[in-house]
Amino acid sequence: MDLNSKLAVLDKIYRIYDNFAGTLNIACRRYCSLCCTVNVTMTTLEGRKIADSIISEEKRYLFEKIRYAESQQRFQPLETINMLAERCLEGDDIPEEENIFPGECPLLFNNECTVYNERPFGCRCFVSRQNCADNESASVDDFVLTVNNIFMQVIEHVDAGGFSGNLTDILLFLENSENRDNLLSLKMINPSSILIRNHNLKILMIPPEHRNEIQPVLDSLNRLKY
Length: 226
Ligand code: SF4
Ligand code: SF4
Known about the structure:
The chain is mainly α. It has one domain. Helix content is 43%, strand content 6%. It has ten helices and five strands. The strands form two sheets. Strands 1-4-5 form a three-stranded antiparallel beta sheet. It has a two-stranded antiparallel sheet with strand order 2-3. The longest helix is centred in the first third of the chain and has 20 residues. It starts with a helix and ends with a helix. It binds iron/sulfur cluster (SF4) (2 copies). One iron/sulfur cluster binds next to loops.
């Protein structure tokens, strides 16, 4: 699949998820941005969509904010969701990752997302039944967590050949036009070990109690023939 086809599939995946999220009873509202932290992670395919929008809409100043965020402590995952699924398949323990107290996302301005239409899946799926400000954390239904994992697995699979990592690290990587142009080739330069190679999907992480309920969502994803 070429890059444009992958970006088109990503759009469709976002649409399917946004439709699903539209059926949920959640407290998330415009200008509610406690969840917009520097800890967001994504794939290079999602990052390419954001980087293209920043460049084409003359929001290049955002790269200054992203560079500043590079000096901040942030969550930098060691494994992708499909790597974790493979561990489960093999019966291995899931390693604990360090919990970083997060600063603000560099793409947030006046409590609004500057790339809202292109925001990555990690932001689309961060929904809460109760206002986080009232409860000091998000409250998410177990079934929604299962659905979220499935979508993350599929997005990583579609971006096979690309990388996953922290939003700041991915966007700085994609600020380089050569990396943007070479997104699907082995010519991409991984600037350091902070980005992780994406893995193909081998097994979906669906607990037995969610297998029936999740089928309509799976059917919609399967129709994409990713
Ligand atoms: S997840 Fe929490 S902080 Fe984020 S929009 Fe929803 S209620 Fe607000
Ligand atoms: S990309 Fe947008 S929605 Fe996601 S954390 Fe940053 S400001 Fe919030």
